[in-house]
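#onboarding

Welcome to the new folks! Below is a worked example of what a typical request in this channel looks like: someone posts a single protein sequence, and someone else replies with the predicted structure as tokens. Don't worry about understanding the tokens yet, we'll cover that in week two.

Example request:
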Amino acid sequence: MDKIITAKDYAKRAGFKTVSEYIQNLCLKKGRLIDTPMEGEPTGEVVAEINWGRWIARCPDCNGAEDVDPDEPIFYCFSCGNHKNRGKPRKVKFPNEQLRKSIEAELLKRPVEIKSGANELDRLVNAQPKIRDEQGVLSRCWTPDETIADLRKQNKAINGKN
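Example response:
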């Protein structure tokens, strides 16, 4: 499996059909550690990005980051329990489907070396970029301020450096 990981991948691995069920279960496991477990309809919005091969969003309150999924675009921060949002999840803004698929396709052109991990998802999360140069590494990362043209320009570094 060579793909961009989403929260749904983690939910499925844990035996849940939806990201929401998965989050609810994690809230229960945290027990008394979370004053504001996820409940209610989403309010507020966060923006999705790709960080080291995973779709994530960052919490506007504490800068924590959690995995998110375009098919179920909700965000709940386990770092702060969405406390300032009274436990309500936030909506996640993703690029439209065509752009999202183009972004993922460009990032998946970037070769990685699979490292250790007890399962396929862990191995993908631990994968290291193979392309390293004076500018740094060519990672599987994307932020909303980057265009497809930016990604393609960055990918030109692949030629001759594998």
